[in-house]
Records
---
Amino acid sequence: MILLEEVTKNYKSRPAIRGVSFAVERGEFVFLTGASGAGKSTLLRLLYRAELPDRGRIQVAGRDLAQLNRREVADFRRRLGVVFQDFKLLRRRTVGENVAFVLSLLDVADREQQRLVYLVLKQMGLQNRTTAYPEELSGGEQQRVSIARALVRQPDLVLADEPTGNLDPDRSHELMELFKEINYQGTTVLVATHDRSLIAAHPARTLLLERGSLVRDGWGVAS
Amino acid sequence: MGGRIVNRHTWREVRRQLRESGAAGLVAVMLVALSTAWGGGLWLVHRWLAQELLADTGAAKVVATGRTEEGVAAARSALLDRFPGITAELLAPRGVQEQLGRWFPELSPMLLSLPDSSFPTLLNVTVSASQEESVVTLLRTQQGISLVESSRTWQRHVAEVSRRFMWIGSVAAFVLLGGCCVVVLLVIRLLVLSHADEISIMRLIGAHEGAIRLPYVVCGSMLGIVGGLLGLTLLVAVVLQLRAIIPAVGLAVRLAVTLPLAGCVVGVLGATLGLAALPEEP
């Protein structure tokens, strides 16, 4: 599903990712971890093609991301569910409209949109906040709206950047259970987190980044 | 985008953008209305002049005036001797007075109260275009004639003035439409800049460039079309008022299509240029 070969990314000559290579199979659940500034978010940005690598090759779902034209990038992103660290909610739209927006891009009928939005918001415990605007929500609620938006179109691959960063421990574990559930249904899930306790509680394949380099690829938290 | 070019998402976005364009959008609409009404009015004036005043009917009118009825009658005789086939009607001062009274009914009481001597004797000659010059030359040599004017000479004067007026008016119309284009450009640019975050998020969740840009272009075209329709309404109102004075002034069906279309073109052009503010992706 994901293949990185010697990927390097620099920001103004400061290396953010250094020669990282790994592969993630379809249907896998993988944690990407490391301290703040280790390069987790940069790696995710490369994976949803918000950035292009300076060197190396990235393939997602069999497509070389550097070869995609503008339209293909949009089509590619439609197959992803991305949970952004800073939520990236459309602030002029309500919770319901934010989640429905990705469905409207696919021209899903209004009634079907309403049904899917209700189901996913119910799953996130936000069914009573449909008409609220993002600024009226707590950080945790905004995070859950962002997750709902990522999951509503049942993507092939979910990329989550610190998805539990604003959630209390109970909500965090509920969310991880949800990710496990959608992974069980066949979706590939890559979760970037610095929270080692989360990985310890939900052990899975874990990629450890340090200063932009991949230093460990193994199961669970290293002892 | 589900196959269709303009879908529910587009219309939703367009409605939102029209709402958000606010006062700036209203200014754009008003400016388009003024320019299209001006352009349309110009075209109507041009058509009216061409049909009513500058039409080539094949015959020319030559009008001569004299101080005395006898002098003008002598000139008429000389004219008919030289050009037997032409029509030359002599109008005595009383006849001229009554004719003017019929042409200007509002002034009729005042005109008819004046003494006959206030009006000249008039010779009204209808000639073919080929004879016009010779008739004018002959009448100017007659003792009893003080003034000779020909309709073709007047038409030439009117045509010249009309051409200059149309040229200046057209330049003004294009400048106004250019101004409209700039205003629409600024409206769309403001919308794009205020939506910059939103647009980058839309891209990140898979919106096509077309789906992002199209609502802005449609919004621009809507501003133009509404402006064009408003311009048409304005023009209709002016024409209806003018008809009371000049009955020959009329509207053309093609204007009902052209004005909103011109507004639409201006809107689309302005919006397309305004979208240059849209940041590119890597």
Note: Residues 1-79+158-223 of chain A form a domain with the Rossmann fold fold (CATH 3.40.50.300).
---
Amino acid sequence: MLEIITKFGPTLLEAMGKTLTMAFYSLIFASIIGLFFGVLAVVRNKVCNVIAQIFVDIIRGVPMIVLAYFVFFGIPYACKNIIGFNLTLSALEAGIICLSLNCGAYMAEIIRGGIQSVPKGQMEAARSLGLPYLTSMRKIILPQAIRTMIPSIINQFIITLKDTSILSIIGFPELVNSAKGVVALTFKSFQVWAIVGIMYLIVITILSKLAKVLERRLSYDRK
Amino acid sequence: MIANDNIKISVKSLYKDFGKTNVLNGISLDVYEGEVVCIIGPSGGGKSTFLRCLNCLEDPTSGNIYFDGVDIADVTVDINIHRQKIGMVFQQFNLFPHKTVLENIMLAPVDRKLLDKETARVRALELLKRVGIEEKANDYPHSLSGGQQQRVAIARALAMNPDIMLFDEPTSALDPEMVGEVLAVMKELAQQGMTMVIVTHEMGFARDVADRVLLIADGVIAEEGTPKEIFDNPQNKRTQDFLAAVL
């Protein structure tokens, strides 16, 4: 075990870095996508609501591994054969697109639920003062909604961080993919996968603790 | 109709349906500058819906609402500009829980660029003094009593310097011992000449402060008159029944 750590530790750490990079960009884009579709789902406009619903239904209804193959192989193929345009996506780019869409759809649902959990009177009070809809949303509704959303959002972030491992199938050298390589070289499955498991565990535990702190900080009921 | 400059808000045959339920069945009303109109009536009769139509929190199904010479019931009108001049106070206060009392009051005037931050702060403190709770300026709403919260809500509405104030059962969610402090603030406001439309169950207050009392039932104005006429000598059967039940 010690031998593996000393010999392949740097490789695995580097791969963890790639995993975190992919997760980091995906979470940023997913938050933007989630906010956009989450708000689209609650505005008083049937067309917007339906668009948001369709997006969520499609992404939620397709396994991420299928989405990954579709984005990485399917879309460049279609571009080349139908449009005649050569699109090359790196594994990292394709991975970020997949994770952003996937996580974004779940975030949209979390944000929709969070917004709807704020009492109606808050929006009415803001509008009655002459604030426009989006200003009311930004200054009054979302700051309150975010407090109820934090646990679910962190949960989703953790799921997305773990889902980066699925992207090993399109060849991105994140942690699982690198670990496979180490296993192939050493034949020490037990030790390698135990190390990898512990690495995920450490990162995710830190993330959960941060979430708890954040949750406490944002609570206005504290005395 | 009389084109009178003194009419603050003029409602012409207002109808409101929720699906198949007709809540308002043709209400017309002129509210004059400085007038205090109290609306009473049975629950589900349409009083609150009517009040909420006045600043288009509910879009009327048909009818006109003239405010500042503009029909604000017209959906192409930018309602946000007109709402700034129509203050509203809610039954449930609806203070913003993530903002301090002071921030609650300053938010809209600053955001709408009516006042700069410093002026807004001074004005907010003035208003808090007026409603008697300047010492709570930096507290969060949840640490205030219901009566205090409602007074903050009144101050928040006044911060926009409105031409008219709408009150939607402002004391109905309060503990009995706090009703008085809120009514006192409203009474003072009335005496200072604010135009007010008040949906209320406080008959004593209506009798005392109103220039005109309307009884809305089944989506129409069943009867209107001075407090004396309505309370001492009601003509309409529905007014008589209602007053017999509540007094």
Note: DSSP finds nine helices and ten strands in chain B.
---
Amino acid sequence: MLRKNWWKILCIFFLLYTFIAGFLGSVPARPILNETIRNLYFHVAMWFGMMIFFIVSVIYSVRYLRHNRPADDLYAVEYARSGIVFGLLGLITGSVWARYTWGDFWSNDPKQLGAAIALLIYLAYFVLRNSLTDMDKSARISAVYNVFAFAMLFPTIWIIPRLVESLHPGGMGNPALDTKDIDSRMRLIFWFGAVPGWALLGVWISTLRIRLQLFSLNQEHNA
Amino acid sequence: MHKIFSRVFLFVFLFFQSVKSMAQDSLRKEVPQMADGMRSNGKIYVVVAVLLIILAGLIFYVFQVDRRLTRVEKGNRASKE
């Protein structure tokens, strides 16, 4: 049990470290950001989680298209689902933060719009899946669509936010945060606490859903 | 005549003094307000405690789901054999 589940324990340690050091650790003083710079460990980590899950999802979709194994499609769906959950949390936490720094929950900032468009494209993935009743066709078409949805991540969250002006920390250039804003202490908590911790939690939840789906699939076969 | 001259001089002098001090005010670098004191006596530890409880609860919940699922999966495998 321990040999298979060591990463779950690691996930708990990462998150504990993030929550304790994230609030009690000292952070550099920056105008406008003030103490909200700590959002890096939570809000920004959501987006990193989302990107990781979408990457995993598209890999499984491509594998499904190559080998035609139903399990691969299942993995792709569940990772895309976790990606959307993390992305929505990132969007909501971002707009709460924006309310108190920019003055409004939603100000049509290019980064907000890009993230919203990316999430809508992924929501359409589920609409497409559920609208097709034939299992094989549904899996195949949605796998192709997933590749397209992933391709749309590039302009919506990686390219356009880097090109246009934005209020978001980092401004032009890095879409997440000005790398000059954070220091090595924060970088340590972010890369060795927040990102792996949240990502592993998402993987954990995804695997639970995958196991559940595989189980019910087996039940149907046996029945 | 002399009086008026000295008054004008005084006015101009004071005017520039005030402009100078205003310029200095705007030049003085604003130090961002940080809640440094809050970490020690602003009850931030309470927030940390609350969040740790929430985190522990969530992880416990996920763990329970995990365990139940494992049990069901094992039961299914046993019934197949």
Note: The interface with chain A takes residues 30-35, 38-39, 44-45, 47-48, 51-52, 55, 59, 62-63, 65-66, 69, 72-73, 76, 80 of chain B (CB under 8 Å).
---
Amino acid sequence: MLGLYVHVPFCAAICNYCNFNRGLYDEGLKLRYVAALLDEIARARDGTPADTIFFGGGTPSLLEPAEIRAVLDALRRSFAVTPGAEVTLEANPETVTAARLAAYREAGVTRVSFGAQSFRDEELIRLSRLHSAHRASAAVAEARTAGFDNVSLDLMMWLPQQTLAQWLVSVDALIGVGPDHASLYLLELYPNAPLKDTMAREHWSLAPDDDAADMYLAAMERLDAAGYTQYEISNVARPGRESRHNLKYWQDEEWLGFGCGAHSTRGGVRWKNRSATVDYIEAIGAGAPLATEVRTLSPRERAEEAAFTGLRLSAGVDLEAIRLRYAVDLWDERRHELERFVDAGILSYDGRRLQLSRRGMLLANEVMAALLGSSVLE
Amino acid sequence: MDQRYIRNFSIIAHIDHGKSTLADRFLETTGALQAREMEAQVLDAMDLERERGITIKAHPVRLNYTAKSGQQYVLNLIDTPGHVDFGYEVTRSLAACEGALLLIDASQGVEAQTLANAYLAVENNLEIIPVINKIDLPSAQPDECKRQIEDIIGLDSETAILASAKAGTGVVEILEAIVDRLPTPTGSFEAPLKALIFDSWFDPYRGVVIVVRVIDGVMRPKMRIRLMAAKQDHEIDSLGVFSPKATPVDELGAGEVGFVVANIKVVADAKIGDTLTEVARPTTEPFPGFKELKPMVFAGLYPVESSQYAELREALDKLRLNDASFFYEPETSTALGFGFRCGFLGLLHMEIVQERLEREFNMELVTTAPGVLYRVTTTDGVVQEIDSPAKLPDAGRIAKLEEPVISATILTPSEHVGVILQLCQDKRGVQKKLEYMKSDRVLINYEIPFNEVVLDFYDRLKTISRGYASLDYHVIGFWESPLVKMDVLVNGDPVDALSMIVHRDVAYERGKALVAKMRELIPRQMFEIAIQAAVGTRIIARESVKALRKNVLAKCYGGDISRKRKLLEKQKEGKRRMKRVGKVEIPQDAFLAVLKMGTE
């Protein structure tokens, strides 16, 4: 079944490490944007069944509950959204109150995902975040009060100046707060990130790579002990609380993205909407095409991409299923390279599934690159 | 042509002292080319030469000059290679001349190579006209230059011409001096044909083009000629001169410079220094001084992709058509697969060949560290020369090992003498001469094992003298030395392409530096990698590359799979350029680690 993604490109402040498609919040622009979104969704009407909806950003919780409701209504008109569909809203802790969360729930949101990032104020300040550690815990409590039984938290590790012990303070705090799902990311500094300049100015440094690996492994062990199950490289959940929407990205399924810069995959074609917010709004107004970077994948590319995305999952990826689907036998073709990872003890293959060990997950790029035959992108 | 109105000359100059610019001015002034036709520095024809600002091959140019007296002259400018690797070509170019311009940069002064070439010119009885160039520069010190000309080279500087090729000043004075001061050729038209080959190259349409200076006699199309050293006869197809475009002529007589096309297929058959004569009436005395050029520096060249082996062979074949001084034979390495052992005149020559293979033939290459030719006497009394550490017999079978030695002349301002002497000592040199000149220059002469110079001598010399010291050298013979073969083991497997021959006393230190550099160059992989240096079975140094623990992109944002693919492809591309030895992936540049020791 289809997954539906809606992009909200507004933020109250720009974080110094983030290069997602976003810009500063502007009331007038937001109104025009929501209207454009509704237009785009109406145009895409085809009645296909869909069982997940994901509001990502940016900061989707800057949209009013009524706006979220309007978008959900539009999606229900255009697609056969199943009863019990997972509807996720990404939210920043400082943007919510118990009342606002209740209104989102009322509007149809079933899952909230808070960008907590850290439970240490010192680190939140370094990241130029607007909330405090206390606000993050409070937001989860407010979500519970509002009736959400599916709450996720994002944490980032390998922050400037962060030690292993300090990282585990955040992990323990997260366990204490008790979300149903958590995503743990390694900070990635893109080339011109303002945080890089700040780091240079303040003489902040990152722990060595090996310590980053230790942070990851130690966090996963604590989450295991606390009853969470790791189901993907960066994601853990209580039983039944995996992100159904994100699983589509990793299980070779299809999704449609709405809004500026949103990505879609359907029928072996991948594309991306125009990125710039105003450009997107104007294209909608003019009835101009939105899709850019359209890639029609060959069966080989589809097989390779199904394999490397599937490899992110703890359960591994079923190469036999890929062979039957695309008639490309990746194990047979790449065996020589893949066996090196098996020998190194970070990958296993049982004749069907290719599976990374936890230590192997930290080296996922090495294995994934080996799954690619030849270059297809410029 | 009347020899009284011919002048044949070369320009002796250090790199960057303005030789090409001056040659351009000659072309302009004599009307050989209009300024608008000129691309800067016409004589350096190959792109590579222009980019590097060095001339590899000598291209003669015929200039028609009307002197102030009103008399018409033919001036043949015979360009000379500007690098020590091509010393023999320089001697042949000078042998084709009666005179030379000694071009000196007014702010740099006399450099070692200029000195060496000036001595060569004197030995060849050439009349020398000193020219002090770049006098328009604020840093110009023409008086200091004059002092150096007298003091270091021993020439009268009274008659030196002050010029700026760039600004065009002094150019006519130089042309007049060439006419007035250089001797005329003195060959005989009636004598049997004798012509000196001082250059040759392969032209895809005409075959080999031979450039000659006619000493005696005259040649015409259809004449049957003999290449005396090559012992080959050919019929002259066409004759011509470069003015500077190739222009056909009906004859080339005594005193003249021009080119001969005679249906010759490979440059190796028309060797520089060979004498050309008439089959019907051969000269009894070939021009003296011919020698076979011998490669001195050897390295392995391997394709990055083993499937490119056949292509590499074809590319080498093609290059060889045009470069007789370069040698190659198939070689197999357990580490690198199939490739070629290649011999070069020197390091620059090696770089040029490498660059041409990469640029003109799109080859991706792994080059192994360059080494020299060693002479081995085995216990059974057999003497052999080996061009690769892999060919060195077992230590037990070696009775005597000899390495080539050079005579190195270094010219430096006196403040750097201390560090330079230290460098020469470190490189196992033996001091032969140390002479303080009046003009604050010091002339240093050392005999140094060539192998030490091949590694990083020149770079270090430039660094420690802040660019002021200059070097000239030539190979003088062999020394017996206690040499050993040092192997490098990666995860216990010897990597043959990394073996090298070193002096016993420096093996430990070299080994340590080499494995330390290798540790920097080999990226972390799935497992720990041990890098060891060994002499025989004895491990003399060890480093390890720790296992890679993290290479993951945590977030796969909003379903952007294409971006993820792009990142993975980039990573894969990086790996493709590495060579796998056993389980270890070794980047191309690690095979040249030995050249990078001591650099950050």
Note: DSSP finds 13 helices and 34 strands in chain B.
